[in-house]
Amino acid sequence: MKVVEKFVSINGEGVRAGEPAVFVRFKGCNLACTYCDTKWANLPECKFEEMSPEEIVEYVAQTGITNVTLTGGEPLLQKEIRTLMTLLVENGNRVEIETNGAVKLDSYLAEPRPVFTMDYKLPGSGAESGMQMSNFEVLSHEDTVKFVSGSMDDLKRAKEIIDRFDLTKRCHVYISPVFGNIEPVQIVEFLIKNKMNDVRLQIQIHKVIWDPEKRGV
Ligand code: SF4
User: Distance (Å, rounded) from C-alpha 174 to C-alpha 145?
Assistant: First the structure.
């Protein structure tokens, strides 16, 4: 598996935001979002460490942290991701997959099933056409759909999708600002004005605690 970085920090987002977590970031992505903050990890020349699922499990075990986030890039593009998820869960870890919404989740639902935090790419990302809408059907109450929003148009589209798929009944729903493009207060006002019950604003905590450009946090 192509690992570009691995580290212990806190979860910056999702239902476990603020908790200690171990991160494993994989190389490569099948999208190219305008606001991507890990573009470096998707470049062909990006250096990586080749690790087997067993070696990754061993690394996680020696950190002593059981809250594991597999991210990228797009982690589901790694051939052995299913094996890794199974081994991590069998070793007593809670496994969260950060996925971009452009990979079908059907083949990852067998037990032991990880928790998915799935993006829905809004128009401002330039990647909306890649979204696999059928994924909404397979989400559970443990999972999260995250809308990264950089404009009022993005917010309107997020509301349309949330309403059309009745998302708040299916899973957790978060809206996050594109750092520097929209003020969080605009999202708050939008949520209140549109009475978007059960939808949460989420600020990426790691970008508040550390320099937003800092890696490995
Ligand atoms: S899906 Fe994520 S990693 Fe891939 S280009 Fe978009 S923001 Fe970057």
Answer: 6
33 lines ligand 1 (CB under 6 A): yes
Number of domains into which the chain is organized: 1
DSSP assignment, residue 160?
H
Closest-CA residue, ligand 1 atom 6, reads 33
Please state the φ and ψ torsions of residue 6, each to the nearest 5 degrees.
-150, 135
pLDDT digits (tens, 9 = 90+) for 8-32: 999 988 888 899 999 999 999 999 9
Domain that holds residue 124: 2-209
| C-alpha distance from residue 187 to each of 147, 158, 200 (Å) | 11, 11, 10
Q: Is residue 177 part of a domain?
A: yes
pTM for the structure as a whole: 0.94
- The answer to whether the beta carbons of residues 31 and 74 sit under 8 Å apart is yes
Q: Is residue 133 part of a domain?
A: yes
pLDDT tens digit sequence for 98-111: 999 999 999 899 88
- Residue 23: strand pairing partners: 7, 69
CATH code (residue 72): 3.20.20.70
| Centre of ligand 1 from the C-alpha of residue 46, in Å | 15
9 assigned to some structural domain? yes
Q: Does residue 89 lie within any of the structural domains? A: yes
Task: Give the mutation target among 4, 13, 31 for probing the ligand 1 site: most ligand atoms within 8 A of CB.
Answer: 31
